[in-house]
Amino acid sequence: MPRGKQTRVLLLNDMEKLDKTLFRLEQGFELQFRLGPTLQGKHVTVHTNYPTSGEGFNRHKFRCLSWHNPTGKEDDSDKYCKLDLQISGSYQYYFSHEDKKSGGGYIVVDPILRVGADNHELPLDCVTLQTFLAKCLGPFDGWEDRLRVAKESGYNMVHLTPVQKLGLSRSCYSLADQLEINPDFSTPNKKCSWSELGQLVEKMKNEWNMLCITDVVYNHTASNSEWITQHPECAYNLVNSPHLKPAWLLDRALWHLTCKVAGGKCSDKGVPPLLENEHHLNNVRKVIWEDIFPKLRLWEFFQVDVNKAVQQFKTLLTQGGSKVKTDPNQHLAIVQDPEFKRLGCTVDMNIALNTFIPHSNGPAAIEECCNWFRKRVEELNGEMYRQTNYHQEQAANCIVATVNYERLAGHGPKLGPVTRKFPLVTSYFTYPFKELTLEEEERMLHQPDKASYFMAHNGWVMGDDPLRNFAEPGSHVYLRRELICWGDSVKLRYGNKPEDCPYLWAHMKKYTELTAKYFHGVRLDNCHSTPLNVAEEMLAAARSVRPNLYVIAELFTGSEVIDNVFVNRLGITSLIREAMSAYNSHEEGRLVYRFGGEPVGSFVQPRLRPLMPAIAHALFMDITHDNECPIQHRSAYDALPSSTIVSMACCASGSTRGYDELVPHQISVVTEERFYPKWNPAATLSTPGEVNLKTGIIAGRLAINRLHQELGARDFNQVYVDQVDEDIVAVTRHCPNTHQSVVAVSRTAFRDPKTSFYSQEVPQMCIPGKIEEVVLEARTIERSAPPYKKDERSINGLPDYTVELREHIQLKESKIIKQASIATKGPNEFVQEIEFEKLTPGSVIIFRVSLDPKAQEAVGVLRNHLIQFSPHFKSGSLPDDCSEPILKTPFSTIASKLTLADLNHVLYRCDAEEQEDGGGCYNIPDWTPLKYAGLQGIMSVMGDIRPKNDLGHPFCGNLRAGDWMIDYVSDRLIARSGACSEVGKWLKGMFVYLKRVPRYLIPCYFDAILVGAYTSLLDLVWKQMSSFVQNGSTFVKHLSLGSVQMCGIGKYPSLPPLSPAIQDVPYRLNDITKEREQSCVTLAAGLPHFSSGIFRCWGRDTFIALRGLLLVTGRYLEARNIILAFAGTLRHGLIPNLLGQGTHARFNCRDAVWWWLQCIQDYCKVVPNGTDILKCPVSRMYPTDDSPPLPPGQKDQPLYEVIQEAMQRHMQGIQFRERNAGPQIDRNMRDEGFNVTAGVDMETGFVYGGNRFNCGTWMDKMGESDRARNKGIPATPRDGSAVEIVGLCKSTVRWLLELSKNNIFPYSGVTIKRHGKEETITYDQWNRKILAHFEKLFFVSENPADPNEKHPTLVHKRGIYKDSYGASSPWCDYQLRPNFPIAMVVAPELFSPERAWKALEMVEEKLLGPLGMKTLDPDDMVYCGVYDNALDNDNYNVARGFNYHQGPEWLWPIGYFLRAKLYFSKLIGPEIYAKTVYLIKNALSRHYVHLERSPWKGLPELTNENGQYCPFSCETQAWSIAVILEVLYDL
Half-sphere exposure (CA, 13 Å, Cβ side) for 519? Predict the structure, then answer.
């Protein structure tokens, strides 16, 4: 177990009921409940019945857990409530919101077992258990000598069948008194008591290091138990379970048949006392059908007395009493008589009166009506007759099948003639009275003083639902004779709660507490048939006496899911699994792999990780006391190899007394009365009743039990099973800390070697590593001894077999191995090839293997260097040999010199970015290339592989096959200069050792190295960011990585140079020219499509993303540089859309300049002394519209002048034709589209621009399809005044007005030339114009007669804001799109809160998708939500992706929508605000899930409708991540 606290996280999801999923945890673990995406934002409460410390456990008492939010932030990604698990048992949790249960499940906490006087821990995987039939231990004074056999055979746990007084049948599981110790254990001079038994159990624990467990039997008690006759209500009798009456009558009839057959009175019917053939069986069936069933008339118990019913109906009709109205869908049906009297059933007369209505009151009409009624009742009776007949058919089949098995079948007990002692079939009920005729006995049915003593026996039903009680009403198991019955035991009837049968519950509770007081654990006998509510209550009582109770059970449900129900509700520690269920050695090996351990070479899992569903811990037994004898089924030679295979499983293991001594028959729990032999080291073959290490396979058992315990204690928890050939199984147990292995090669003997052919040729085996020793070699051999004869007094085994055994020898001393040669498999991997000589059936050889010394040393040094990341690696670490000097410095010190720009290189960079530098992302053959060249590319894949230990993944295959990926990781970084190179060298130093370890271990150590480095690098990223990020939630932190992902420095500078007058600009030496050049970080629009070259930087994208990715994260310098660089490119009063380093810029968008201005405003507000930026020099590339690009520094202006120019130019009006207009800059644009216009409406103050052939806003899809005739036509021109641009302009004007009032901005307005005169419009006037006209002209009134509405016929949705005002196609103004919430965020003063709120509700209803916002109202006729840029067809609206902004769900608008909701909800009231916060958290939880699951670790540009994946979208987009960060910042 790794040091440090282990934490498991259980994600709660709405309506997720996990009561059939098993979650196993250990004491000392912390369990955290966190909210899944479906619950984030809701008021969820988690309840559990796990007790608070110092309180006892009460299954029905639930408490509410309190939430912790480590960051104290509004988002729920880190919120958790927790349990510190200190008590073993089964606990329930459920969670609810709005007082409704929403889901839940169970957790099972394992007990801690302790042995020895010092109470040291016995891990569950170290348990080696041996079962004893308690009655075969004989008188108590001989117990110690008989139990000593288990101690000397190396077992550390003894399982005793019940030690209580047995019933008449002498079955170990039929108890006469649950509270009294078996009197057989006492001798005339010495009575055995509970306290003496307790002393022996304690002595075994303290002196022998052995625990002792016993069975608890809750299902039945012996038929002769005295207490059951005093309390018959505790059984299923004919008074409390009258539905069993027909079955009882059939049972008595069969008993009378037994008596007749035994007396020879049926021989004339072909049924003699000794049944010998099929013919006799057919005659039994004939007698049942001809003599018994007709006489019993069982159908009458389910039928109505027709005459009586008709008479009652007639009386009611003639009296004309008022009838109660009934449901017309209810039809007449038989109502079962609860007393089950013959013809005692009835029908509902109300339904009858409503169904059969006479057409008049005359006697003829009434008579006719009664006849109809009679006919229907007779039909119903007929139906009951057919049903009973169907039950009788099954009963006859079951009776004949039982007789066949018990008397004729080769594998059956062959009981011989029918007698009263061995009846034809076992009785299903007790009958404690004098025998009478069947007719006289039937009268007792209805006499409660007699009927309460007719009690149902227990048994089991093949293939039945284990969660159903077969004795309850509704089940016909007893009538259909489907029960395989235990005629010595009465089934107990608990009811649903203690009040239903107080004596029984109290009695059994006392029994349970007594057992828990004296024993360390219990085996739940017949668990699958024990009512769950009973077992739950009893085990809770047992655990209150002994908290660390070990609970085992055998379940025959045939379903792992149903097994989980039992394990969950009862807190079962280990399920018994049988090796005898394996039909060959291959299946036996598969079971070893199934029941425990991880694959060899598994990854190191983090201490905090998701709680994964488990399978129940196994107690894997080579044989249980219920199994038939393996010597009869397989051969005596198989005992040793099969027990070795079982013992090598990484779970608890066990066996049954008699197996090791080679007892050649099953030791029957019912009939065996002999005693077990005692331990005597000096015993000889001729000494009866004594055994020692020479007996059977005991010596081999001692060795494998010791080994099993050593492997469990020393963390050999990785398992590999190799089927060498059809009989040979090799099981490897591997320790992931020391990398030692133990390999057990067993040659099974499922067939008897004396009578079956086994090849002399045994295949060679290759064992990787260095064989240190042969731990054990053992062969089953024959020895000369008198032939086996069953002893009268003691249980003896085959004397003529023993084990030839040698332990801890060197390879050369082995008699089983012919030779072992060493071969190398690669430079650092040694393999020993083993050639066998005498691996005969029944032999076993076990090797202890370590890594080759050089590999062992490399692993030790690696582990030593990994301690800096996790203390887990301390075990197995070795001091460094100092051959790699860089490793002396801790990784965190080396990495601390990295800037965020360097970290972009170390962690990210997609293929296109790498290709600029002549590289690319690593491509995994037969799979796919990694998403990033940096560490994130690898971590995204490992994050999927690690939790599942998917070592077969092509990624792991590539690592094992060669060093290519390892070298790629380090060499790529070394090729860079500076701090990146140092990180690469550190990795290379670690990889020197990594390459020396065996290839099968490379994936797990490669992962460990990179996980350590990666987590350190992430911490370093966050350290360099704002306090909002540093103190933020996991979601905030992971989003902030988008800033590193998107912001990098390429080979070629993408930004135009800043003014040389600015001091703190980063520089580098150009690789080619060797001259200094500026190396400012640029912001990619999205990966992978907009990441490199001319397409990396876009004005609009940059400034929509800049606040979230750079200002909110505290990267102020980078933000400043980008603002100033773009300022230098201002031309025509516009900021370029496509930047093209400034020299190839396109000034074809109307909104980028306003987003740029908004960012300057945000910068001034967010950054300390932010307004200083206004005075920063801007190096103008185009001081006039027509000037050629000037070099930096030639024309510098303060930023405030550039801002003023942009405002002035808009007010003056902008009109120009793009340079180089034509196909060379845009192959789709029509000629008119290259004409760019923008201006300000003098009356309204609204910015306007564009024409119907260009698209100057973010919705900028230009038609490309000749075929659909949309080429050169914008899908969304949005000319006129686009709502978000009006909002951004208003925001800027308001801000400049404030600055000018505070003397920070030297201009109070703009001055323009109009009609030859200069005219000044102040910012105050402009501001007021927009304010006065906005709602009047943009709000679509709910009043159809609103005089402000120019085009009432075009209104499609009321109560919204228009998308634009004054478009050339007026209907476009009225389209519902997600753009007006942008204006609400940047200029909320334009909106009246009530109207704004209603409009936002419409947006939520119509446009909100799982991750993004629909770009068009789905009710619009051109809406299409699926974007396919490759599709070229005749459809004008979709061809070549024409619908890019006509429905697909873009992510960035959702940020503005949520921020608008948040702003206005605060104004409306606290209740609305609380609901809005829930909506936001819930919406953001989906982004969190996407971010975590995406291999890109980002958020996409867009999705198709309803959040479906869009293959044409960027996988991670700057503005998508930025806006979500902004929402969290606002929260």
Answer: 24
Looking up tokens 């090996």 gives 589
Cα–Cα distance for residue pair 798/169, rounded to 1 Å: 28
Q: 1324: burial class by Cβ within 10 Å (0-12, 13-18, 19+)?
A: middle
Catalytic-labelled residue, pool 220, 476, 520, 528: 528
Q: Tell me how far apart the alpha carbons of residues 429 and 397 are, in angstroms, rounded to a whole number.
A: 20
What is the spatial distance between Cα 908 and Cα 1041, in angstroms, rounded to a whole number?
A: 10
CA distances from 112 to 122, 815, 854 (A): 7, 42, 39
H or E stretch at 96:
strand 89-97
DSSP state at residue 87: S
Active-site annotation holder among 626, 967, 1172, 1346: 626
Start-to-end Cα distance in the chain: 41
Position 71 scores a pLDDT of 78
Is there a contact between 740 and 778 (Cβ–Cβ < 8 Å)?
A: no
What pTM, to 2 d.p., does this model score?
Answer: 0.88
pLDDT of residue 2: 41
Q: Is 805 helix (H, G, I), strand (E, B) or coil?
A: strand
Across residues 741-763, what is the average pLDDT? 90
Residue 963 annotated in active site = no
Closest C-alpha among 213, 175, 218, 178 to residue 533: 218
Phi, psi values for residue 1046, rounded to 5°: -90, -25
By C-alpha distance, which of 217, 53, 150, 197 is closest to 520? 197
Tokens of 813: 């001393």
Catalytic: 626?
A: yes
Q: Which two three-digit tokens encode residue 938?
A: 């690898």
Contact (CB, 8 A) for 1276 and 1253: no
1281-1328 tens-digit pLDDT: 999 999 999 999 999 999 999 999 999 999 999 888 999 999 999 999
Q: How far apart are CA 1069 and CA 1075, in angstroms?
A: 5
Q: Is residue 97 flagged as an active site residue?
A: no
525, 911, 1279, 1417: the catalytic one is 525
Query: Cα–Cα distance between 516 and 550 in angstroms, integer?
Result: 10
- For the chain, what is the mean pLDDT? 93
Distance CA 3, CA 514 (A): 38
Give residue 98's pLDDT band: very low, low, confident or very high (50, 70, 90): confident
For the chain, the residue count is: 1531
Side chain identity at 466, as an amino acid letter?
A: P
d(CA 368, CA 934): 93
* Cβ-based burial of 873 (10 A; exposed 0-12, middle 13-18, buried ≥19): buried
